[in-house]
Give the backbone structure.
Amino acid sequence: MHEGDFFYQAFVYLSAAVIAVPIAKKMGLGSVLGFLLAGILIGPFVFGFIGEEGQDVMHFAEFGVVMMLFIVGLELQPSLLWKLRTPILGLGGAQVLVTAGIITVVVLTFTSLVWQAALAIGLTLALSSTAIVLQTLNEKGLLKKEGGQNAFSVLLFQDIAVIPILALFPLLATSDVITTGAHDSHLWVDDLPMTIHALVVLVLIVGIILGGRYLVGPGFRLIAQTKLRELFTAAALLLVIGITLLMSQVGLSPALGTFLAGVVLAQSEYRHELETDIEPFKGLLLGLFFIAVGASVDFSLIAANAGLIAILVTGIIVIKLVVLVSVGKIYGMRSDNNLLFSFALAQGGEFAFLLFSFALQNGVLTPAETNPLIAAVAISMALTPLLMVMNEKFIQPNFGTKEQNGRAADIIEEQNEIIIAGFGRFGSTVGRFLQANGRQATYLDIDPNNVDLLRKLGLKVFYGDASRHDLLHAAGANTAKLLIVAVDDQEKALKIVETTKKHFPHLKIMTRTKTWNDCYNMIDLEVDGIYREYYDSALRMASDALHEMGHRYYPSKRAAIKFRKHDEHFVAQLAHLRHEQTLFLRERRQYIEDLEKMMLEDIENEAQDKELGWDSTTIREEFAPIVREQMDDEEGLIENDSNTPTN
Amino acid sequence: MKVLVLFAHPALHKSYVNKVLIEEMNVIDGVTFHDLYELYPEFDIDVSHEQDLLSQHDCIVFHHPLFWYSTPALLKEWQDLVLQHDWAFGSKGNALKGKLFFNVVTVGGPRKAYQKGEFHNHSINELLSPLTQTAALCKMTALPPFVVHGTHAIEDKEIQQYKNQYFRLLELLATKNVDVNKVTSYKYLNDYLKELEG
């Protein structure tokens, strides 16, 4: 490949990404699907900008997965990893074994394959796609949720499971090993006895942990002292690539090695630096990887075997879904988390490409068997973001009503004058305060875990979606006087307010908002009270900061209150002006200017405080001469002291 | 004798006199300086803490500028909340019984303006009678006030003289060198101190 080719390819890949990803994101499909679509479009079967070399690109781009796990590791403190040990072993183990078992049995039942081949297929298809799942979950901010975290745990187990599976395949060989000449899967450690091999692996892992803890820190400190940013980036890349090489040398998954290194470095002071340095490389390579997956979808093969592949794809997804949902249920996940978890992991993974080609080399399977399977895996991967969107949009929101066995909205037996929607950090503070002052409220929350936990604490919290008018009705909206909307999700908050205004116009509404835009929306809806979530604490902090700098406390507090009132006034004005978009933009700039003016004015007032009765400047101007005169006349104590010399 | 100075000034940054008067007051042995506006900027007075503090002292001082012939708002709130029935007054309210009480006030006008027929038409003693009567109801012995006059036209040298007098007074009280019976016969504590110096 000469230079022109390289730039041409880079141009094709990058422009496909730049065009497809924003469109996919705009449609709410996420970047992963965007990259996949871009890949399909530029691939050999649609526009044909790139040909068979897509496979090579994919192998190269798999390095993005390695980097991703390094970054995931960086964000995972060892203590958290230790906490995850049950889901990793329990959930992960159960998922891989049960899925592999069922697929093996299905393959044995419906095909004429021998059990060795069936087992290889079962084990391979049990694995899911770390790249697609983590990227999608991360993008949606779901990685921290219970469902997301469990999905991550399972993926981690699968990464570990690849190693024994690779070791097992040669034992499953039924035909002669295809000799493809030199192949890099033959490693120097393969010649060593089993025990020595294990020892080498162990030494390496301990080496990574100790090295990460004691060598990398000082190393990076030295590099940081050179103050050359590029050098730091180079060193970060070197670290990841070095570990990748080491791990491949002994036949371990590089992703696992870098993940381990990431976890070790999660406590280092260079954690954020490393993260920001690796992040763009990871992003680009992952994007490339997804494009390559898209491009590798062999449409001619699919067209030739359309029926078979459709069955395979459906089979993979359905079997995995069923197993995941059952495993999740046994593990005790709530339906919404379980659905997220299951839909996230119901696909074949990139390991399948590796394992299938490995199986070919070892004579476990034949190309006629693997080709449709590889196509099916690629399609199931491409479908994942779509499945997750489907779950998010259609299945999860309705599971409360549609699923008879799932959790239906609670029946609310008590009716209070206050209804609080959302019992998270914000709503719970409001609720606790009201309760402390003898005001009972009816609480509604949409997070079942939250509801159960708070109920254990003896609070009256009810499960349900407060934007549904029947639930509000059940909560006593007809007789209540006040609705407090404390939910985090502003779209939901807006819906709740709209429903309330429509069905229960007598209710006063107080609502928590986040951005200026949320405020404007609420002002348009004529909500009675609008509370920006961080505003008061920010101002309290600001006035305390003034105090820290030596200002008196009380004037600092007054300044903060005054500031808040000014600000609220301006926000209200802007809300009425914003409907003309262009005018709004202008006004928004105006707001910044006004804010600046306000701040300057505040500073001046702080110095003069003209409006305050405490200021005696003008009194002094008027009365000082008279006072002075009278004081001088007086035979007061001070006068005597200053005029008559003391003995 | 332990002296508690309850200081109330909402805008100390604008004060010429009080800034100097309170400086290093805490250094005096037996004197506790208690800055109300700094402690309770949100008027969130901790009543039981204040009552404990009062119980631990023998002489209570209200030190404040005279705003509209009265105390600043927070010191009024303090009285309303802290001087509870059955604690400070009433048949069972003996917590403050026998303690000394007096005001330290800073006023803009000269002493001459505070008498019948003049600008303010009342003496400082008359104007402070709600406070001295409060003290009486709480079974405390009210002493005459210490008054800083003419803050609208005062000079640095004069402020310093007031401060010296004030600190002298606090030291005398802390070391029990004040003849209470004699002191009560003066209009101002300033006059008593002047005579001591005289």
About this structure: The first strand of chain A starts at residue 418 and ends at 421. DSSP finds 29 helices and six strands in chain A. The mean pLDDT of chain A is 79. The domain at 404-533 of chain A is CATH 3.40.50.720 (Rossmann fold).
